[in-house]
Amino acid sequence: MSRDHLRPAERPADGPGAPHSSADAPYLELLARDASAEAYEQPVLMARAEGRPAARIAALEHAKLLALRVRSELEGRRRREAELSALFETAHDLAGLRDLDAVLQAIVQRARSLLGTDVAYLSLNDPARGDTYMRVTEGSVAARFQQLRLGMGEGLGGLVAQTARPYVTEDYFHDDRFQHTLAIDSGVRDEGLVAILGVPLMLGPHVIGVLYAADRRARVFEREQIALLGSFAALAAAAFDTANLLTETRAALAGLERANEIIRDRSAVIERASEVHDRLAELVLRGGGVHDVAAAVSQVLDGTVEFAETIAAPADALEASRAGGHAVRHGSDWIAAVAAGGELLGALVLHGHPGLDPVDQRTLERAAMVTSLLLLARRSAAEAEQRVRGELLDDLLDARDRDPRLLRERAARLDANLDATHVVLAARLDGPAADADEEAAARRRLWSAASHLAATRHGLAAARDGGTVLLLPLGPGETAADVARRTARQLGTAVHQPVTVGASAPVTDLAAHTDTVTAAYAEGRRCLDALRLLGRAGDGAAAEDFGFLGLLLAGERDVGGFVERTIGAITSYDARRGTELLRTIEAYFACGMSPARTKDALHVHVNTVAQRLERVGRLLGADWQTPARALEIQLALRLHRLSVPEQH
Fold it and tell me: Is 125 helix (H, G, I), strand (E, B) or coil?
C-alpha cells in the first residue's frame, strides 16, 4: 500500500504533506512572534547541520516557503490596515476641520510614516506671486529647503503641476526630465535628497500644489506607494476646498451681520452727525487747531482721520473731491479736499473705511469745511506775524535811528534775540518763469517759505530787491557757509525750484549797530551774485567758501582771517618750534618750485629742503602744490609779509 493511501494519523511524522507536522512547528512559532524574514532560514540550516534526512529537509523547505508566503500576506494586510486607518483618521480630521495647517501637517506626517521616507513635504501654488512655496515639511533639517519658493514649471514639482500626473525620480540630480534651477538644486542638496516622489493636489481640473515623499538614498517607489501618496494628496486638496468653503461661509455670515449692524445703527448715525456738528462748533469757538478737528472726527467715525498737505494727498482723488465738493473714495481710504476760494489747502484722509455710509461721508465733508476755515484763520495770523517780522528787519536794514532797547523788545515779542550772533542771507529764485504773474507768485512763495523758516529758527525775514533777506542766528559749531547751504536746500524744497543763497560773515550786537545789518546784507548779495556768475545757481555759500576771492566779496576785507585760514598752521609751527618753514616755502615759490634752486637760495642741503617741504605738506594738506592752492598760499604769504614790520 502506498504512502498516499495511509490515513492522516498513519502518515510519517516528517512527511512533507503532514498537517501540523514537526516541520511546520518552528515556522508557526516564527509567525507567532513576527520574526524577521532572515530567521526563517534557521530551521533548514539547523536540520542540515544535524544531518537530518533529505525528506525532513525538503519538508522544512516547503514549510518555509509556505510560512514566508503567509508572513508576506500578513504584512501586506497589516500595511493595508495601517494605510486605511491613516486615511480614515485623515478623513475624520477633515470632517471636523478647524485648523487647516494642523490637518495638512497630519497628512504629511502620516504619508512619511507609511511610505517610510526620510522626508515628506507639501507645496502650494501662489497665484498672486506666480510661484510655488513650501507650506508643510516633515523630517526636513535644512532651513533653506524649508523656505524654498519655486517658479512655475521648475523642478520635479513643476513637471507634476504641468502634467497633473505623479512623477518619481530615483536620482534627482541625474534626472533631466525636468528643469533644474540653482535655487531648487541648492535646497535639495542642503537637505541631501536623492529619490523623490511627487503627486498633484487637484481641485477639479486645476493643480493647486504637490505632495512629496523623498529619501536621502536611491530608492524605487512601488505602485502601491504612489497610489497611497495620491490618496493623501486627494485628502489634502479636499481639506483646501473645505477650508475655502468655510472661509466663504464665514465671510458671508460676517457680511450679513454687518448689514444687520448697519440697519440697527442707522438711527445712531444720525445722532452722531448732530454730535459732530456740536463738537466742531465748540472747537472753532475755543480756538482749536487742524489736528484737533481730525482727532474729533476720528472718534465720531470710529476710524483714523489725518490732515494731509496738498503734495502728500493722492492728486487724482484730491482734484475729484475739490471739483465735486464731496469726499471721494481712494482704495480703502476716503479723501475730502480742504479748499477755500478755489485754492487747495490740503485734505482730510479717513484711513481704512471703504464702506463709509452717506451720513458719515457728509460728516467728513463738514469737517473739511471747518478745517479750511481754521487754516485761513491761521494763515491770516501767520501773514500778520510775517509782516511784523519783515518790518523789524526792514528797520534794521535801513539803519534808521532806532532805540536799541525798543528794537530788542520788538524782537523778543517775535522770539528773536538781537544780541546773539547772526548771519544775514540774501536769497533769490533761479528757476524760469513763464510770465510776470508766475514770477510774482513764485516770489510770494519764496517770501512765505523764508518767513516760515525764520519763525522756526527764531530769526527774521523780509522781501527785498526781487528776492528775500533772512537774519538767522548762528548755532553752536555752525559756520556761515553751513547756514547758507542748508537754507538754499530748505527753501528750494519748499518752493519746488532752485533758490540761490549768499551769506555774510557772522555779525553781532545788531540792536546797537544797525548799520552792521546793512553791510552784511550787501556782503551776502555779493556772494549770491558770485554764485550765479560761477554757474552755481541753487547753491548756498559765504565769503569763506571763495578762498582769496572772498577778500573781494567780504565787506570788512578780512585779510588776517584769510592769512590765518591759509598758512596759519605754518606760522604757528614756526613760532612753537623755531623752524623756518615759512621762509622755505617763500623761497620755494620764488625759485619756481625747484628744490635744487631753493637749497642754493637758502644755503642748505637739498635733503633739508625736501624734509621741510614734506612737513609743509603734512601741515597744509597733500594738495598744497596744486595750482589753485599754490595761488592762494602765495597770496597769503605776500599779505603776511606786508603785515609784518620790516626788521632793520
Answer: strand
Helix ranges restricted to H, 142-193: 143-146, 155-163, 182-191
Q: Are strands 304-308 and 343-351 parallel, antiparallel or unpaired?
A: antiparallel
* pLDDT at position 68 over 80: no
pLDDT for 18 equals 45
How far apart are alpha carbons 160 and 226 in whole angstroms?
13
Residue with cell 509567525: 31
Confidence of residue 638 (pLDDT cuts 50, 70, 90): confident
Alpha-carbon distance of 425 to 470, in angstroms, equals 5
Residue labelled with grid coordinates 511610505: 115
C-alpha cell at 484: 547758507
Amino acid at 460: L
DSSP-derived pairing of the beta strands 343-351 and 333-340: antiparallel
Contact 208, 201 (CB under 8 A): yes
Place of cell 505623479: 166
Task: Report yes or no: 54 and 16 within 8 Å, Cβ to Cβ.
Answer: no
Please check the confidence at residue 527 and state whether its pLDDT lies above 60: yes
Cα 139 from chain centroid (whole Å): 34
Alpha helices (runs of H) in 286-357, residue ranges in sequence order: 290-301, 315-324
Give 473's strand partners: 422
What lies within 8 Å, CB to CB, of 470 at 6+ separation is: 424, 425, 427, 450, 453, 454, 459, 460, 461, 487
First vs last C-alpha separation in the chain = 162
Write down the H helix ranges in 480-626. 480-495, 515-533, 549-553, 559-577, 581-590, 595-602, 606-620
Backbone phi, psi, residue 133, to 5°: -135, 155
Query: What are the grid coordinates assigned to 497, written together?
Result: 525750484
Each residue's pLDDT tens digit, 381-421: 455 555 666 677 777 777 665 677 887 888 778 888 888 89
Give pLDDT, residue 8.
39
Read off the C-alpha cell for 520. Answer: 552784511
Q: How many CB atoms lie within 10 A of CB 100?
A: 18
Q: What is the 3-state secondary structure (H, E, C) of 395-436?
A: HHHCCCCCCHHHHHHHHHHCCCCCCCCEEEEEEEECCCCCCH
The total of other beta-carbon atoms located within 10 Å of residue 97's CB is 15
What are the backbone angles phi and psi of residue 604, rounded to the nearest 5°?
Answer: -130, 170
Q: How far, CA to CA in Å, does 85 sit from each of 77, 82, 235, 237?
A: 12, 5, 14, 19
Q: Can you tell me the distance from the alpha carbon of 138 to that of 114, in angstroms, rounded to the nearest whole number?
A: 13
**Is 220 exposed, middle or buried, given 0-12, 13-18 or 19+ CB atoms closer than 10 A?**
exposed
DSSP letters along 59-86, please?
A: HHHHHHHHHHHHHHHHHHHHHHHHHHHH
CA-closest candidate to residue 458, choices 419, 430, 489: 419
